[in-house]
Specification:
This is Stage II sporulation protein M. The chain is mainly alpha-helical and about 325 residues long. It is about 80% helix and about 0% strand. Helix 9 packs antiparallel against helix 10, helix 10 runs antiparallel to helix 12 and helix 10 runs parallel beside helix 13.
């Protein structure tokens, strides 16, 4: 981008930052993030320009304001969860939808494939798991797998595995998004065939009310991790006005923040799977946990980012 076009595109924003200072920590942080992005771009392409020196001075001024408003290190932690991560998601909603669509279509294919091929479930889930579940069904406890291990050990294993899956889905985005899409597709097929396995035996509702106590957060987080991976891959494939390397660095930074932001979701899902899913709960309680989990995901990752974006644009 030519320097004149860069200045013209951003002049009104810089003037507003300079002439209308704010003491609101969230808005100050939002402005500072945008300004430092502009400064980074200017340093890369116009290192000796007047506009670079101007932005550097304005960023230094805003940094001092941030330090004055920052009471302690906890503010940075709160800012990440209340502003920075949701704002990233507003920018990534299109990729989040694509990630969901890939997973959903794969789930349907897994369901249909299991319905038309008796060997498909064993191919996807493995003979050991299928045989164990069939044995549990005979015993009257079809989901007895959740009672087989010590809670604390199970919690640690599940949480670490889920976090590993999340970061692997993110890292596979380095392969031009293809690796991430493959991970989403495989997990979607697995879930679809898994649910058909229980449907075929008249246990679909029972499995949903039990498995989705933790599955709502767990599956949602995998889809969101897919969004992080697609963010990385697309930054390489579609750099826009940025040079490809600059766009790729920005994509990695943004995708990594999204992946890190999922860690508490996986910890919560691991806790639910280890300590709650194994319990025999009334259907209304199970449904309540599932609905609350789904409402949180929709609000925090979709509705709140939209509201936040509108607030900062108004």
């Amino acid at each position: 981008m030519r320097e004149a076009a860069f200045v013209k595109r951003n002049t009104d924003k810089w003037r507003d930052i300079e002439q209308n200072p704010t003491n609101d920590p969230d808005e100050l942080t939002a402005r500072y993030v945008e300004l430092t992005d502009d400064l980074s771009y200017a340093r890369t392409f116009y290192p000796d320009s007047t506009v670079t020196r101007y932005l550097n001075g304005l960023a230094a001024q805003m940094h001092r304001g941030l330090m004055q408003n920052r009471r302690d290190d906890r503010n940075r932690f709160l800012t990440f969860w209340t502003y920075e991560l949701p704002f990233l998601f507003r920018q990534s909603h299109r990729l989040l939808f694509i990630s969901f669509l890939i997973f959903f279509v794969a789930g349907l294919l897994g369901w249909v494939s299991a319905a038309h091929d008796n060997t498909f479930v064993r191919l996807i889930l493995g003979d050991q798991y299928v045989n164990m579940t069939l044995e549990n069904i005979k015993k009257g406890d079809p989901l007895g797998v959740y009672n087989s291990d010590d809670q604390a050990t199970m919690f640690l294993q599940i949480t670490l595995n889920n976090i590993f899956v999340s970061f692997r889905t993110f890292v596979f985005g380095l392969f031009a998004s293809v690796g991430t899409m493959a991970m989403l597709f495989f997990n979607g097929v697995m879930l679809g065939s898994f649910q058909y396995f229980f449907h075929e035996r008249g246990l679909l509702l029972e499995s949903v009310l039990k498995i989705w106590i933790h599955g709502t957060l767990e599956i949602s987080a995998i889809i969101i991790a897919g969004c992080a991976g697609l963010t990385v891959g697309n930054s390489l494939l579609f750099p826009g006005t940025y040079p490809r390397l600059v766009s790729f660095r920005r994509g990695i930074k943004q995708g990594l923040k999204i992946a890190v932001g999922l860690v508490p979701i996986f910890i919560t899902a691991g806790f639910l799977e280890s300590f709650v899913t194994r319990l025999t709960l009334p259907p209304v309680v199970s449904a309540g946990i599932i609905l609350v989990s789904a409402a949180f995901i929709v609000w925090y990752f979709i509705i709140y980012p939209i509201q936040l974006n509108r607030r900062f644009r108004s």
